[in-house]
Amino acid sequence: MPQREELFYNAYSYGDKLEPGQKMTLEHHISFNPYRADLSSLTEMTLGNLQVMREKSVAEERKIFSELQERAQLWEAQAAQTMVLEKAMEYVKTPEVKNSGNRWEDTEYGWRRISNRVYQMTYRIREDTAYDHKLKKQVPVAWYVSWSVEYNLPPRKDPYYSRPSPLAGQDNKRYADKSAAERYVQGRIAAYAHLFRELSPPLPENHVHLFSVNGKLLPGYTVQPHQPTPQELLAFVEDGDTKEAKPKKRNRDRER
Asked: In what order do the strands lie in the sheet with 112-115?
């Protein structure tokens, strides 16, 4: 619907909107209104004069448009200030991750969990039963082990954010013997026990972004120094950066 009706034109605005710190939208249209227009004074002029007047009017339009663009640049600078303040607030409002302080605890559906500010490990031994017609009751027939080691990540505001894959794990590993299933679980716990010796273990360098908000590492975290991989060490040797020690010359005089 028209927002304004003038003598000879209708003015429309579509979606004029301000999203602080993000977006400004201005879109305006005008249309000719033949029922209100009176062209008598203009139609008596020559085409040349009308053309000159139109060019002057267009020049004024361009001037106003240029001024609006300059004002839009002022908005950009101010919106950037709003944006950076919101990003800082998002960082400050990020709660610390919940953790068990490196102690095992029971959770829902038979799962057990241990966690600190960086890592979490969960496991479950699920018993499967079948009906024994001789005993006339359900008896255990198998045990299924599921476990995983993951990062214990801070909550994210981004609705499109997806958690990274587990660092390690196994789903429904079947055992016919319960004690074998328990031994397997204890072996997995022992293999990853080194991750649960500190409340806030150093972060791997390539995963710092997971514990950062808007590019800044959250408080209380440290970064593990880079450890060269075997491939990097091999490349280091192949590049000639290390020289093999030359064998010492034998002193023939001493041997005589």
From this structure: 105-106, 112-115, 119-132, 137-151, 168-175
* Confidence bin at 240 (pLDDT 50/70/90): low
Locate the domains of the chain by residue range: 4-93, 105-238
Lowest mean pLDDT among 73-87, 117-131, 153-167: 153-167
pTM over 0.90: no
Cβ atoms of 175 and 194 closer than 8 Å: no
Residues 6 or more apart whose Cβ sits within 8 Å of residue 166: 148, 149, 150
CA angle 88, 89, 92 (to 5 degrees): 90
Query: What angle is formed at CA 18 by the lines to CA 17 and CA 23, rounded to 5 degrees?
Result: 105
Distance CA 90, CA 214 (A): 8
Other CB atoms within a 10 A radius of the CB of residue 49 amount to: 11
250: pLDDT confidence band, cut at 50, 70 and 90? low
Residue owning tokens 């607030």: 89
Contact indicator for 116, 102 with CB cutoff of 8 Å:
yes
Strands 23-25 and 112-115: unpaired
- Dist. CA 139–CA 132, nearest whole Å: 6
Measured between alpha carbons, how far apart are the two ends of the chain, in Å? 114
